[in-house]
Amino acid sequence: MADKGQVNYEASDLYRIRHSAAHVMAQAVLEMFPEAKYTIGPPIEDGFYYDFDLPRSLTPDDLEHIEKRMRQIIAGNHPFVRKAVSAEEARRIFKDQPYKLELIEGLEKGNQDEYGNPLAEKPEVSIYTHDTFVDLCRGPHVESTRQINPAAVKLMNVAGAYWRGDEHNPMLQRVYGTAWRTAEELEEHLWRLEEAKKRDHRKLGKEMGLFYFSEDVGPGLPLFTPKGEMLRHLMEDYVRQVQTRYGYQHVWTGHLVKEELYRRSGHYDNYKEVMFPPMVDENVAFRLKPMNCPSHMTLYREMGRHSYRELPLRFAEFATLYRYEKTGELTGLTRVRALTQDDCHIFCTEEQVGSEFGLALRLIQEVLARYRFTDYRVRLSLRGEGGKYVQDEEKWAKAEAALRAALDESQLEYFEATGEAAFYGPKADFLARDVLGREWQLSTIQVDFIQPSRLGLSYIGEDGGEHIPVVLHRAVTGSTERFLGVAIEHFAGAFPVWLAPVQAVLVPIADRHVGYAREVAEKLAQEGLRVEVDERNERMNAKIRDAQTQKVPYMLVVGDKEMEQGGVALRLRSGENPGAMPMAEFLGRARKEIAAGE
């Protein structure tokens, strides 16, 4: 059922507080630099920013001075006053501000708002004034500066930003800040940021020896070590087993596809900017595969005539895809150019959409729970104005109705978001919160009435006639790379025992204990555990510290006593020290924790 209580951020008090804090910050910056040119200053998630064209670069000392002045402005209890003006009056007010004049021109034409975002309707030109500062702005704001808590505002950093995000435009200085209701909320936010730095998957990935990036290979192309590859294998194998249990069949469709197929499917017109350049052979253009759906649909068609009795057919594939993401948008594993997607396409009748959605939903819920993602919400992603979408109103209407019905039948609460649909149809996106409360889009289920028709898919119905199947696009973890990056930060690298690439490290106290450590490791490996022996010429405590840095769940110390008794001395990565125990007791404990997903 639709979530009627979904909070609209723009209507929230935090939005107004942050929007108003951005204006206060801009006033303080303009007082410091009277010749400055100012552009836009919107609220964003957890804070705000403002972009400036300044005569020199800002320093940390500048930020402290700006913060101090902001507190003085806030204490002045200045009201925020809105006024509607003509475009001519706005140009007079901002006659010395070229960026504002450019925005006013867009407002006057009715094709953008005061931030330069495209609009469907011509907006009103409005300004907001507080104290000596005036800005082109639609609001909303707090009533006066005193409603901003000075103890809950902090300027965070300065970054470069091109005007309107276009690298051909001037480079501006973007000052980021954050604002909250109380000092306690600010303190909690700052703690989360520090904790996020400690959990950064790029940092932990290198410390744990899981993956690397090299300029010799190229940006956005990760290199996985044996431990990193073991993680990938474990993640993909787990999803493969679950999918098989749910009736999915795994296929393989290669890395190259003729460009013509993407033209027919609609991907070329709507997706070509993220495709790698074509490779031409005998005047035929090929593309590195950026998505699986046209290949899976072609496979369905090539397998011959299908009967309604065969449906649903569920094709799953762990396929490496290639997307020409901009270099500046690449972010560790969470935004790469080579990604492995746990993709699936379900070919079904219109009547089966609800049941297949329910099956996919149960699969997704099972997998997310295994990774301890239990706090998530569902976004119904619909078309928006001005987006790139295949134009077929009848099929879009059918797809939206089918997806809404499936969501309602599942009794999931969901909220709507326009402009987030795929170019061929609406989708249900699963937004999960990690242990720090950050939200990630992980899973998706999409309804497609358009591509099956464009690619000539059909089945013979119960009436003996030819019908076009509906295709559900479904991903559980999205891409292996991105999900791994999220999981590293979610678990702070301390993976559950079942997922840890190395589950136990044998730590011999002295050289004479190495032989016994090898024997224990071999026996544990035969029982299915992933085990290593640390034979380095290092002190025991150093080996244990290194294993803890590697987030290994179990450290098994062996010395004279353990050799005599045929046991091990168990230490945990948490620092706990359960002590000596028979090997069978340790093995039973490990099996129990693995089975429990611990």
Please provide a written account of the structure.
The structure is a single chain. The chain is of the alpha+beta class and 598 residues long. It has 3 domains: 9-193, Threonyl-tRNA Synthetase, Chain A, domain 2 (2-Layer Sandwich); 207-373 and 448-491, BirA Bifunctional Protein, domain 2 (2-Layer Sandwich); 504-595, 3-Layer(aba) Sandwich (Rossmann fold). Strands 11-15-16-23-20-19-17-18 form an 8-stranded mixed sheet. Strands 1, 2, 3, 7 and 8 form a 5-stranded antiparallel sheet that branches. Strand 5 (126-130) and strand 6 (133-136) form a beta hairpin. Helix 6 packs across helix 14 and helix 11 (353-370) packs across helix 12. The longest helix is centred in the first third of the chain and has 20 residues, at 13-32. It is globular and about 90 Å long. It starts with 12 loop residues before the first helix and ends with a helix. The model is unreliable at 2-7 (pLDDT under 50).
Tell me, rounded to a whole number, the average pLDDT.
92
Sheet with the most strands?
8 strands, mixed
Rg, Cα atoms, Å: 29 Å
| CATH class descriptor name of the largest domain | Alpha Beta
What's the CATH superfamily of the largest domain, by name?
Answer: Bira Bifunctional Protein, Domain 2
CATH fold call of the largest domain: BirA Bifunctional Protein, domain 2
Q: What is the domain total for the residues?
A: 3
Give the number of DSSP strands. Answer: 28
Q: What proportion of the residues is helical, as a percent range?
A: 25-40%
Alpha-carbon distance between the two ends: 33 Å
Q: What would you call the structural class?
A: alpha+beta
Q: Strand order, main sheet: write it out.
A: 11-15-16-23-20-19-17-18
Helix segment tally: 18
pLDDT under 50 segments (min length 5)?
2-7
User: Which percent range describes the beta-strand content?
Assistant: 15-25%
Work out the oligomeric state of the chains in this entry.
single chain
**Could you say which overall geometry the principal axes of the C-alpha atoms support?**
globular
